[in-house]
Design brief:
Elements: H1 10-30, E1 34-38, E2 45-51, E3 56-61, E4 68-70
Antiparallel strand pairs: 1-2, 2-3, 3-4
The structure holds zinc ion.
Length: 71
């Protein structure tokens, strides 16, 4: 069995992680559970939520660039 090699965009991942971590630290500092910010990739709106006791970050861009993260 051979499986197609998945191409991973590491530059994109680094960008998503950097955005997510920055957002999370700002939200923690301000005590926010929900926040929005401008997407650095496409200029759309990223909606972010901190969920659970350990503040897991969920975020997704609605601008159509596919930026999203679930920690
Ligand atoms: Zn975007």
């Amino acid at each position: 069995m051979t499986r197609p090699v998945q191409k991973i965009d590491t530059k994109g991942i680094a960008e998503v992680l950097a955005t997510g971590m920055k957002l999370k630290s700002v939200m923690n500092k301000k005590g926010l559970k929900r926040a929005r910010c401008v997407c650095p990739r496409c200029g759309g709106t990223i909606r972010a939520t901190l969920a659970g006791a350990r503040n897991h970050l969920h975020m997704a861009c609605d601008g159509g660039c596919g930026m999203q993260m679930m920690e």
